[in-house]
Amino acid sequence: MDNRTFRRTMSESLHTLGRLIAFTKGDRVLYFAGMFLAAGQGLIQTVVFGMGIYWILSAAQSGDMAHTMRVGIAVLALSVFLVVIYTLGAWMLDHGVVRISARARKRLEDHMVKIPAPWYDQQHSGDVMTRLFHDYEAGMENTLNVPIQLTLNILLSGVGSIIAIVALDWRIALSLLVISALSMLLTSRFVVASRAAATDVRKQNSAVSERLLDIVGAAQVLHVHALYNFVLNLLGAEVKKGREYADRQGRIIALQDAAGEAVTLLIYAGVLSVGLAGMVNGSVNAAKLIAIFQLSRGPINLFTSFGSMLVDLQNGLAGAERVFQMWDITEENYGHIAAPMPGAPAVSLSGVNFSYRADTPILSGISLEAHVGSKTALMGESGCGKSTVMKLLSGLYPAYEGSVKVFGHELRELPRNAVNNLLVYVTQDPHLFIGTIEENIGLAKKGASIEEIKKAAELADAHEFIENLPGGYGYMISERGGGQAVRCSWRHTGRRCCR
Questions:
Q1: CA 155-159-163 angle, 5° bins
Q2: Whose CA, among 205, 224, 366, 489, lies 20 to 30 Å from 215?
Q3: Residue 340, domain member (yes or no)
Q4: Considering 422, 449, 477, which residue would you say is the last residue of a domain?
Q5: Cα-trace Rg, the chain
Q6: ∠ CA(395), CA(397), CA(401), 5° rounding?
Q7: d(Cα 175, Cα 165) in Å, to the nearest integer?
Q8: DSSP bridge pairs for 401
Q9: Cα angle vertex 177, ends 172, 183, to 5°?
Q10: What is the pLDDT of residues 213-225, one digit of tens each?
Q11: pTM for the full model?
Q12: Residue 334 lies in a domain
């Protein structure tokens, strides 16, 4: 791995981490205060305990048992106090992360409904769901808590222990720093490989989710055509590839752990060697050497755990980056509501060219007009572009050539809510949300009364059908849509209740 790749990876990681930290705005005092207090656990386990051993043993060497007891009680009281501080910090941190995560989740939900339709068409629903749930949880919620807290914990413990060792014996501290710095340089070499492995694992998780959703969504087709072996083979191939990526990530972690263990033994051997030499010349006593051994855990964790700490952090940041990719998509424009221009055709297309992919044109030179009060039908063979014209008119695909006007307004210049106000588009495969029929019809107008909802159903010739259902307009629609009859009624109802 060259230094340029390492620097680029670290720069990308710091950028992603900075974007994560930006979400703490509004709870930064709670979050950072809790983070630093909770990270003090390392100080309790290493510095306080190590120096406590030194103070107690030094007092015991004096032969004054009363003094030794007082020192022991003081060390115990300090430890209890720090444990209470840690507990308070852990609560503050968890509470802050919950608040920050809830706020970030709400922002993401608000953003995802404004992402242009073409982006969703280019993504598999399994990939989108993985980003919204698995990647969000690991990259946003978890990274803001455990990896960052662990990093600060190790830093505070390591730096505090080094300062304490310097105070006890600078020669041992110097030898410890030299060995530890070499180990840090060694373990940092795993950063790029771990980031790449984490990214591959997350992408493959999305691929597995895509196959699973295909199986769930096509359950009836699988039964009718006995395609289980086909889809299971596809799923098995993705799962196998996922295991290969996970195995590669595991090998990187294992190599890093092995390097860390080797460095740990080297550090202890160096401390012991210098310490015994000090005992021989009288500059180090037994109490000091025992305390330094305890304090050595701090720098050992700091330098040998540096690599594994970065692996955990890179794993979370890889998930966060996939969420930010979704966050960076430009939202559709939701602005003013435009009124129809007097005398203008309801719809007019002039010289329209459009393609989903550059090498496959769908519409070429299409021109037509449809006037208010008239009925216009688009006819043609399957795949000729009839549905594409409807999607263009609905504003789902603004990247067209030519002119598309709705009631005299150029479509690409209209904000989304203006398009919704001028047009009603009933898709070939309408989607029903889990809830009652009343709630589904009422989606078209916020706060729609039951009278308005029934009027819309009457206009769609669905009122009588709905009234005969159990519960009438309170009939609960399941995930599958409540049956084909309900789908047919909704196909005609559309959004009329707000017009």
A1: 170
A2: 489
A3: no
A4: 422
A5: 33
A6: 105
A7: 11
A8: 353
A9: 130
A10: 777 666 666 655 5
A11: 0.61
A12: no
